[in-house]
Design brief:
The protein is α+β, with helices and mostly antiparallel strands and 410 residues long. The chain has two domains: 2-46 and 277-409, no CATH class; 54-263, no CATH class. The protein is built from 15 helices and 15 strands. It has helices at 2-12, 14-46, 62-70, 82-89, 117-121, 148-154, 202-208, 212-220, 245-253, 265-274, 277-308, 310-318, 323-364, 375-391, 393-409, and strands at 54-57, 80-81, 94-106, 109-114, 123-124, 128-129, 132-135, 143-146, 161-162, 165-166, 181-187, 197-201, 231-232, 234-239, 261-263. The strands form three sheets. Strands 1, 3, 4, 7, 8, 9, 10, 11, 12, 14 and 15 form an eleven-stranded mixed sheet that branches. Strand 5 and strand 6 (128-129) form a beta hairpin. Helix 2 packs parallel to helix 13 and helix 13 (323-364) runs antiparallel to helix 15. The protein is elongated and about 110 Å long.
């Protein structure tokens, strides 16, 4: 009976109630979105590389090795011997190995020297493989495969020529003009650093650093197969058995013939994300402040309505409603508005993430689930309802006092 009365009372003041509902809808939607984005962005961040069990490079910090190997940020402190890569590739515990050589660029985009094992085994997100929007893998010495962003921003298409520059700056004074590359493939967007990478073969990296006369001699004599580099930047490893990860990591770190360091991508990712903890906290504080502003609006609306509802309160007192009943009535009204706004916000945010999922993956590398009913979100709803009850106490007490005054007057 009381719940029906509260609902009918809200309908009689629909204009102010709708405005309050919209305010709560926006604030709760922001709160849910921030919490869901925070959790999913962390997962997406960790999924910038998937299926790789170890990253091997020269001894440096774990984060530095992760940054230049996965995110193409920063520069390696040293290289590792190419023979070390061959040893790792042939190790009985290793299923596949991807060599990586960094150091050059093209118009501000990093150039990665690798092999076709990169296109066959590198994965991201929920273990998605790289796929080609156009073209194919590397086949000849001066083939190049572009990431989606490189091709889009620079307006390249298949068959165009690309000249690689020495160094990683957007402007270089040393271009390898004597060895232009031809675009044979353009990758699908991934939302990861792959989109910003120019991919060439390891042999091509070695070739462009030869003097023009020596390169001509190598090509004329058919000696391309011998153009293996003496050193590379890092290696990505996928293992036959995940249980061998720590044992192999220990072997690599103690390898006598070269100075090597192996790190677990997941552990390094966790360390990197912890550095962003302050940003998480800031987003939460902002969304809570938005919710707080809406709750103040709800309290103001209920208090402002008390003057308009004196006749209603008098009628309710005449038909036997006690002051405590009036108190409950105001609390029910606040709960109804917030509950309806919360359900609407949940549906709105879920539908938005579901419709925008492909766009977020392609442009920002965010793999967001449309299902946002997690334990954290449910706890958040409980917190919202608790704060709404607290916010409704002031107008509820005002209604209680009006009921008492009406009782005393009678």
């Amino acid at each position: 009976m009381l719940r029906t009365l509260a609902f009918q009372s809200l309908l009689s003041r629909r204009k102010t109630v709708i405005l309050t509902y919209l305010s709560l809808l926006v604030s709760i939607s922001v709160l849910i979105s921030v919490e869901h984005l925070r959790a999913e962005a962390k997962e997406s961040f960790n999924r910038s590389i998937a299926g790789t069990d170890l990253i091997v490079g020269a001894p440096t910090g774990e984060l530095n090795l992760l940054l230049y190997s996965v995110f193409r940020m920063g520069s390696p402190t040293n290289n590792i011997q190419y023979s070390s890569f061959e040893m790792l590739k042939d190790h009985r515990s290793v299923a596949w190995a991807i060599p990586m050589s960094l150091g050059d660029s093209h118009r501000g985009y990093r150039v990665l020297g690798t092999t076709n094992a990169y296109f066959d085994h590198f994965s991201y997100g929920d273990k998605r493989k790289l796929s080609f929007r156009k073209g194919k893998e590397l086949s000849t010495l001066f083939d190049v495969v572009l990431g989606a962003e490189v091709a889009l921003e620079l307006g390249y298409s298949l068959g165009d020529n690309v000249v690689i520059s020495h160094g990683i700056g957007s402007t270089s004074f040393h271009n390898h003009d004597h060895a232009p590359f031809s675009i044979v493939g353009i990758l699908e967007p991934t939302g990861t650093s792959v989109d910003k990478t120019v991919h060439v073969s390891l042999k091509a990296i070695e070739a462009i650093h030869l003097p023009p006369s020596q390169l001509t001699q190598v090509l004329d004599d058919g000696l391309v197969e011998y153009l293996n580099p003496s050193s590379i930047t890092s290696v990505l490893l996928g293992l036959e058995n995940k249980f061998a990860t720590f044992a192999l990591q220990r072997q690599i770190n103690n390898f006598a013939d070269d100075r090597l360091m192996a790190v677990l991508p997941g552990v390094a990712m966790t360390q990197l994300w912890q550095l962003m903890g302050n940003l998480e906290s800031l987003l939460r504080v902002i969304s809570l402040l938005v919710l707080l502003a809406s709750l103040f609006g709800l309290t103001t609306m209920l208090l402002a309505s008390m003057n308009e509802r004196r006749n209603e309160i008098s009628v309710l007192r005449m038909i036997g409603a006690s002051p405590i009943t009036l108190f409950k009535l105001i609390v029910y009204e606040a709960v109804f508005i917030t509950l309806f706004a919360s359900i609407s916000a949940l549906l709105l945010v879920s539908a938005s993430f579901f419709m925008l999922s492909d766009w977020l993956v392609a442009n920002y590398g965010l793999f967001l689930s449309g299902n946002i009913l997690t334990v954290e979100i449910l706890l958040m709803f409980a917190f919202i309802m608790m704060t709404v009850v607290i916010a409704a106490l002031m107008p509820a007490i005002e209604a209680y006092r009006s009921g008492l005054n009406s009782q005393l007057a009678n």
